[in-house]
Structure formats: C-alpha cells, structure tokens
Amino acid sequence: MPERYIQSNCKDMQDLAGLSRSTLLSYMQKQSQPRRPRRKAAGLAPTSYPLLAAFAPQRLFTWIREYVSHRLGRRHPFLTYAKSHADQGVYRLEGDGEVRIALAGDWATGTDEASAVARLMTAFKPHYSIHLGDVYYVGDDDEVGENFLGIKNPKNNFAPCLWPPGSRGSFALTGNHEMYALGYAYYQKMLPALGINAGGRPARQKASFFCLENEHWRIIGVDTGYNSIGLPVLEYIFQPSCALRPELIDWLRDVVRPRKDDPRGIIILGHHQVYSSYDHWYPRQARQLKEFFAGPVLWFWGHEHRMAIYQPYTVRGGIPAFGRCIGHGGMPVDLPPAQPKHTQCVVEFTDDRHYPNDENLTIGFNGYAELTLNGNQAAIGYVDVHGKRIFSEVWVVNNGALQRTQAQRG
User: Fold this and answer.
1) Which residues are within 8 A (CB) of 183 and not within 5 positions of it... i.e. 6 or more apart?
2) What is the total count of domains within the chain?
3) According to DSSP H, which parts of 5-140 are helical?
4) Cα–Cα distance, 371 to 269 (Å, whole number)
5) Is the residue at 74 inside a domain?
6) Which of the residue ranges 97-101, 266-270, 359-363 would you say has the lowest mean pLDDT?
7) What is the CATH number of the domain that holds 255?
8) Could you list the residue range(s) of the whole structural domain that residue 107 is in?
9) What is the pLDDT of residues 15-53, one digit of tens each?
C-alpha cells in the first residue's frame, strides 16, 4: 500500500521540529521560518533548520523588536465572569440525542497536518470543539489569525488554518505559547470568535475557563497557561508552576460549587500535564482541585507533543486522575523514548508508529480525540491524521464513580 502524504499550501513540519520552550528561542525560530512552503520530495533529507536566518539584518531587528514589545510588559488582565452578568461560564450541554465534542491540543501550528486534522474534526460534526491550548510560535496577532482564525497573513504565502467550530459552541484554553505574547491576542482576538452559539453566532468566550454540564457529566476547562510564564530570564531559573489563578478557584467555589458526592462524572481539560512518564510535571493544579473533587477524574491535557493513555495516578496531595495526553494536534509528534523518565506513571497505550511524511522527519502521527456523551456513557475515540481510530474506550458514571467498560486498540 503506498504511503499517503498530506499536502497543501500550509506550513512545513520541519520548521517547527525541535521548537524550544524558551520564549526567546521561540521568537527566534519564528523569524527563521521561510515565507512560503518548501518543495518537498520523498527520500530527500529534511532541510536543516536555518536558525542563522534570524540574524539577517531585517529579521534580526524584527526578532528583537517583537520580543521586547511582547515580553517586557504586563500580561493581559486575567478575565473572569462578572458577578452581575447572567453569563457565569456554566453552560448546558446540548446535542441531538448524543453530545459530540472534538478535542485537540497544540493544534494551532498552521501545518498541513493541522489542516488535515481540522477537516477530520469537521467531518465528526461536533456540537462542541475545544482547543487545549498553544498557538505557535508565540501566539501573537498574526499567528492567532493565520493559525487559528483562518485569516490570511499578507507577510507570507502560507494558506491559513481555521479552527473547526462546533454547532453549539467552541472554546479554547490558554497554553504557554499564547502567553509568550502576554496573552493579548488570545484575549482580544480569539475569545471574541468563540463561545456558546447564540442566534447562529458565537456569543464570545468570556474567560479562559468554563464548565459544560448536564445531569450526567461535568466538563471543566481550567487555565494552566496564564501562570506558565514569569519574569524574562528569571523564568528560566525558577520554572513557573502553572498554578490556577485565585479568581478561577473562587469561580469554582462560588459558581460551579462542585460537591465530592456529586453523582456526575468529572472531566477536566487543561493544557499542562499533571503528571507524565516522559516529561516535567505540573502537579500544582491537581492539589488545588482536591478541595472540590474526590476523584478519580478523566483529565485531558496537551503541552507534550504526543498521544498517551495513562493508568490512574495520584500526585502527592492531589486528586487521582486518568490522564489523557492529546498534545499531538498539529506539532511534530515526539516518538516515545526507549526508557520512560518517570516509571511510576504507567502508560497503557501510546501511538509509537512512525509517521511517513514527505519531509522525511522521524516523527509520530498527529491526531485528535472524539468524545461522545450519551446518557451516563462517554465514548472516546482517538483518531490519527489519516482518519484511523487507533484507540477507543467507553466510560460510564454511576453515583459519581467512573468505570471503564470497554477499551480497544485500533
């Protein structure tokens, strides 16, 4: 069977390969990106990343100017729900007998693969679509436009990508890359285009956190991105904890009012991993949420550019969680290492297949998750960039207790 290469006029994977989580180097790599897609051919080695292109006189000036203007200032104010407003960020889940929700993390890259994933998500006909964060390279106005809102950037010759909307609503969480531009494009450009549909149009996502609920399920999106950056330079020495903001905790306590004896199943959505077999941990939010949830909960996150299904794990002082990493939406996907970094986090399934591509990169498959709610049942399918379901599971909730009744590879 011949290999299927995904081609369009979008961005090249090789220009995002090896992207540093350093803010400064993310700005540098952005300036090194070519202005149009490369000509690619199977069998040829990928083009070495031209980092030195960032030091060309015009690009060097742009690199410094953008970094200084976006990083040496205050973050966008953290938005919350006005207590006097009817919209408090808690919305009724609605569907057509079932509720279909498309989930993807680290999707907003503008790559050919991100475009292909978006087409698959659209074909799923989701009632809701939720992005778990990260607009690359640095989440500024231009990148939010061309990599998320489908707006052509006149500065280059790439085709833009549009986040696939849900028929009932669309939401986006913050990642660290949105905050590399201090969150201004996220709050001022993305959120107005999102939210619950009202009269056929999005009514604006009011804040970076929300709750979707019915009599069987509560899906709670939390913001781990706002506190993912610190002071320039010092943030490389003292790594930010990605803790949840006090305003979000107050909203949970005063508006959502979760009870540990709630009969509904709890699904948490965030950007940063609470635990990981492969990478750094961000356990602070699991400890913060212990006040509200007994667990275990289903917890979806991104940040790591891979797909992984974890057995239940409890970070010290936190709530137990069935972790689901789906940070493989649009970035070059990391293949699992020969030896995990943290053996106490047991991976039940990870997609370790090499993705054949015309850029000849050694990477894994991109993809997303399809969550379908039907009564007290939640069916989850993990779909790759070619539309193949690689893992599926079915959960039921009874008196607040989650039980998985089916799990299948392929």
Assistant:
1) 75, 76, 139, 174, 225, 226
2) 1
3) 23-32, 57-71, 112-123
4) 12
5) no
6) 359-363
7) 3.60.21.10
8) 90-409
9) 998 887 778 778 778 888 888 888 776 556 665 545 556
Q: How far apart are CA 112 and CA 116, in angstroms?
A: 6
Surface-to-core class of residue 143, CB atoms within 10 Å of its CB (0-12 exposed, 13-18 middle, 19+ buried): buried
User: Which is nearest to 298 in space by CA: 240, 377, 243, 352?
Assistant: 377
Contact 204, 169 (CB under 8 A): no
- Tell me the sheet residues that pair with 219: 212, 267
Kindly tell me if the per-residue pLDDT of 271 is higher than 50.
yes
With respect to residue 53, please indicate whether it lies within any of the assigned structural domains: no
| Sequence-distant (≥ 6) Cβ neighbours of residue 193 within 8 angstroms | 149, 202
What mean pLDDT value characterizes the chain? 91
Q: What share of the chain is helix, strand, coil (3-state, %, to 5)?
A: 20, 25, 55
Smallest CA-to-CA distance from 273 within 230, 304, 248 is with 304
- On whether residue 126 sits in a domain, the answer given is yes
Query: What's at 208, amino acid-wise?
Result: S
Condensed to tens digits (0 to 9), the pLDDT of residues 290-347 reads 999 998 999 999 999 999 999 999 999 999 999 999 999 999 999 999 899 999 999 9
The answer as to whether 15 is a domain residue is: no
Contact between 321 and 312 under an 8 Å Cβ cutoff? The reply is yes
Closest CA to 27 of 196, 180, 236: 180
Respond yes or no on whether the N-terminal peptide bond of residue 137 is cis (omega within 30° of 0).
Answer: yes
Q: What is the 3-state secondary structure (H, E, C) of 131-178?
A: ECCCECCCCCHHHHHHHCECCCCCCCCCCCCECCCCCCEEEECCCHHH
Confidence of residue 1 (pLDDT cuts 50, 70, 90): very low
pTM of the predicted model, to two decimals? 0.94
Given a cut of 90, is residue 71 above it in pLDDT? no
